[in-house]
Design goal:
WH-like_DNA-bd_sf, transcription, 109 residues, DNA-binding, alpha+beta, three-stranded antiparallel β-sheet
Length: 109
């Protein structure tokens, strides 16, 4: 599977985000999802076969990290997508905070 098709799946994009700057074990990745370990393992296999993550074995554990170089131009796209989502989240949080202040200012003592 090519890299673009691999990252088209939302869970695989989320896995990439998790291992973007930090190496995580398969178990640490799996515990962040509401699907089986087997399902996460399949996503990791697709990412690994596409060359988007590196695998390091230590005993029985497997550790994954995003391979920024292999992602090529996709790396910039993913960074901008995640940045835009964070900007949107920050705007929503600020709006909710302002709304809370507006309601408390209008409340009678």
């Amino acid at each position: 599977m090519d890299a673009v098709r691999a990252v088209a799946e939302p869970r695989r994009r989320e896995i990439l985000r998790l291992v973007w700057d930090a190496e995580l074990s398969a178990g640490e990745i799996a515990e962040r999802f509401d699907v089986t370990f087997g399902a996460v393992s399949q996503h990791l296999k697709v990412l690994r076969d596409s060359g988007l993550v590196t695998l390091r074995r230590e005993g029985k554990k497997r550790f994954y990290r995003a391979d920024h170089e292999a992602l090529g131009p996709l790396a910039d796209y993913l960074r901008s997508m995640w940045s835009a989502k964070l900007d949107t989240l920050a705007e929503l949080a600020e709006a909710a905070e302002q709304e809370g202040r507006d309601h408390s200012e209008g409340a009678s003592p």
